[in-house]
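Expect chain and fold; see below:
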Amino acid sequence: VAFVVCRSLEGLKTFSYLEELILDNNLLGNDLLLPKLPRLHTLTLNKNQISFQRNTCKILLDHLAEVAPSLQYLSLLGNMACPNELVCKEKDEDDYQRYRYFVLHKLTNLKFLDTRKVTRREREEALVRGAFMKVVKPK
């Protein structure tokens, strides 16, 4: 078995009917650009290099909303953007919940985020306050 680290996603443009895409462990960052994938409903970007630095995660989430309008399942576990107390001792469940509200504010069609089903209460909270929930580390 050979593992190849993905450096370019250029070839994906020929797969416009793609429904599921797993890009785990590929050193991908906030500059990730996907082609238009109108049928993509599942995307996993676990253990990459996606962070909340300098509003770039907002840009990435806006990009995903545009190129993958059918996206229902997204996983960002193992990235700095996904605050997890198992990965970083300074993060707690409140940080993770704020992250969820922010992502759900940007990607309103999600049914699952990471390993959890999106609840109606979370969706409502994301609509009202999600834009203000970006988790940032103070300087």
